[in-house]
Write a sequence for this structure.
């Protein structure tokens, strides 16, 4: 059986014989992974239903694990088309200040009052991540967008609960143009959209970095932005017991066989796919004595850089390890701190003996 280093379309997986080496983060793999090109809704969008498919992502993870590629293939993510020049824009159900300017929008007290009241009463099963900011979330784990008729956190929560792998939502007021800005309408009148965006990871305050932008001479700005994060573990995985909650990431003394990193949505199914594909590959390429490295356990966690979620990190093992070995909470790379959160273990059932 040979050692393999894969750099694939979504991420890379480095294989080695089971080793007692510490399971530190593999920054070469993190750096080589394709960063999702979409980190939020298009500026002109009022609706963008969730399209992320957990089964498709798991299948892609398994395929990537068994391909020995030397360069990543970029995904072609194209932006939606925009409306015709000066075409009326949809929605605009929110309140607006008497003075039509970006400064008046940002200073409009009812936006702050509404956001602060909502943040004080988060929906059941969620906790408030941030409140009343003048910026919306921009992150790798974007799932979808809905425009609401009222600032309704329960409605936004319901959209999140209906979307598989949705872990957080951001609700906010946005100053948008009533017409699509163009040469004949450089700075049209404004109205207010109430937007609800869904995310496949927690959304701490550090992710709220989108303060708006210009559309020709019209200034889009954001006010009353609240973020909420769901309090729940990742989904169960077919063929595995778990998830078992850990403190940090597993740092085991032996039986470690490799790791895989997927930027974007936090999805334990990708780790399950990688684990199963690793076993299938090694089963087809056993050692001379008929043994192979069966993935019987994996540790999945959310990798964050300076408290901004980056993606799903998977560590694979030939045997299960308990919570007492979950001692890796993060590490520095220069001045940047890469942290571990939402760390869970999954154990294959039944166990694979690793012998032909």
């Amino acid at each position: 059986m040979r050692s393999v280093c894969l750099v694939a379309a979504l991420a890379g997986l480095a294989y080695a014989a089971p080793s007692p080496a510490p399971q530190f983060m593999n920054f070469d793999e993190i750096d080589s992974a394709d960063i999702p090109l979409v980190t939020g809704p298009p500026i002109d969008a009022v609706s963008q239903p969730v399209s992320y498919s957990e089964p498709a992502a798991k299948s892609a993870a398994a395929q990537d694990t068994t391909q020995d590629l030397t360069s990543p293939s970029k995904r072609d993510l194209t932006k939606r088309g925009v409306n015709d020049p000066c075409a009326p824009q949809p929605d605009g159900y929110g309140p607006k200040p008497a003075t039509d300017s970006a400064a008046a929008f940002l200073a409009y007290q009812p936006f702050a009052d509404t956001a602060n009241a909502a943040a004080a009463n988060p929906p059941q099963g969620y906790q408030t991540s941030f409140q009343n900011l003048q910026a919306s979330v921009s992150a790798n784990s974007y799932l979808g967008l809905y425009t609401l008729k009222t600032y309704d956190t329960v409605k936004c929560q319901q959209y999140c609960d209906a979307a598989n792998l949705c872990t957080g939502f951001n609700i906010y007021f946005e100053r948008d143009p009533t017409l699509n800005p163009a040469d004949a309408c450089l700075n049209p009148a404004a109205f207010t959209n109430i937007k609800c965006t869904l995310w496949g990871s927690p959304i701490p305050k550090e992710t709220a970095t989108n303060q708006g932008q210009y559309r020709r001479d019209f200034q889009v700005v954001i006010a009353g932005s609240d973020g909420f994060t769901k309090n729940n573990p990742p989904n169960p995985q077919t063929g595995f017991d778990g998830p078992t909650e850990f403190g940090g990431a597993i740092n085991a003394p032996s039986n470690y066989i490799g790791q895989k990193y997927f930027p974007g949505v936090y999805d334990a199914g990708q780790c399950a796919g990688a684990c199963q594909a690793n076993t299938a590959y090694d089963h087809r390429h056993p050692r001379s004595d008929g043994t192979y490295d069966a993935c019987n356990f994996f540790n999945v966690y959310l990798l964050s850089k300076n408290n901004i979620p980056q993606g799903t990190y998977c560590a694979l093992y030939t045997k299960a390890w308990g919570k007492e070995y979950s001692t890796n909470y993060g590490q520095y790379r220069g001045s940047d701190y890469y942290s571990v959160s939402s760390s869970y273990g999954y154990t294959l059932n039944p166990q694979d003996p690793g012998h032909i």
Remarks:
- Residues 28 and 81 are 36 Å apart (CA to CA).
- The chain has six helices and 17 strands.
